[in-house]
Amino acid sequence: METSRLPLSSSIRGKLISAGYTSLSSISSVSSTDLARDVNITEAEAFEILKMANQITGSSSRNGSSSLVNGAKNAWDMLNEEEALPHITTSCSDLDKILGGGISCRDVTEIGGVPGIGKTQIGIQLSVNVQIPREFGGLGGKAIYIDTEGSFMVERALQIAEACVEDMEDYTGYMHKHFKASQVQMKPNDILENIFYFRVCSYTEQIALVNHLDKFISENKDVKVVIVDSITFHFRQDFDDLAQRTRVLSEMALKFMKLAKKFSLAVVLLNQVTTKYTEGSFQLALALGDSWSHSCTNRVILYWNGDERYAYIDKSPSLPSASASYTVTSRGLRNSSSSSKRVKMM
Question: N or C: which end of the chain has fewer CB within 10 A?
Answer without folding.
Answer: C
